[in-house]
Amino acid sequence: MKDKRSWTRHMLLTGMMLLFFGGCMGQPSAPTRFYMLNSSLDTEIKLKFAEKDQYKIIGIESIEFPEYLDRPQFIVRQSQNEYILAEFDHWAEPLKSNFERVFLENLNKLLNEAPVAVVQWRSSLTLDYQLRITVVRLESDLKGSVSLVAGWIILGDDGRELILAKVSNIKEQSKSEDFKEIAAAQSRAVEALSQEIAEAIKTISR
């Protein structure tokens, strides 16, 4: 009799567990949404075929990113020392790669009419200047306030001469707390950084 009661309790518990997990498994999970930074500048990049001595070549030597941004999820700052990850809102590609491509596109568009050519990383070309960027922060808070902090330097004489050093602190406000709008605000922040650096390049290349 005792064994029969134990067997009955065991079957009841098993049935309850099956119902519980079956209900959980039957509920569809929320779809993951993917976003990318993009360039909003409508200028078309013109190819430059002038002789080398007619324009300067700027090489983007390096763009460094902090490790906390090396993840697919959006990073949201909840407080000064606390961050949360957006479970269902991801970048479509590594943020560093996305940033590099959009920044290079922005810079070439902004310098389109200047006697300057911008290339990525070191190449076989002889560079007139080198650009190095360290991104310290690229994030949003819970209210959609975007912050981009980046230090950057421009070097000459094959990296042996410091031409300019600056830290850019850029703020953008998202139109809403939706991650689509936050991605757009971050794109505007990258564009603002591109504009600052483009103006500096125009000044030193005159």
Description:
With 206 residues, this protein is α/β, with parallel strands linked by helices. It has a single domain, classed as 3-Layer(aba) Sandwich (Rossmann fold), CATH 3.40.50.10610. The chain contains three helices and eight strands. Strands 1, 2, 3, 4, 5, 6, 7 and 8 form an eight-stranded mixed β-sheet that branches. Helix 2 packs across helix 3. The longest helix has 26 residues. The chain is elongated and about 60 Å long. The protein starts with a helix and ends with a helix. The model has no long low-confidence stretch (mean pLDDT 84).
Q: Kindly provide the radius of gyration, computed on alpha-carbon positions and rounded to a whole number of angstroms.
A: 25 Å
Q: In which range does the helix fraction lie?
A: 25-40%
C-alpha termini separation: 98 Å
Mean pLDDT over the residues: 84
| Count of domains | 1
**CATH superfamily label:** ABC-type transport auxiliary lipoprotein component
Strand-helix topology:
Elements: H1 2-26, E1 33-35, E2 56-64, E3 73-79, E4 82-91, H2 95-110, E5 116-120, E6 129-141, E7 145-156, E8 161-173, H3 179-204
Parallel strand pairs: 1-4, 2-5, 2-6, 3-6
Antiparallel strand pairs: 3-4, 6-7, 7-8
Helix pairs in contact: 2-3
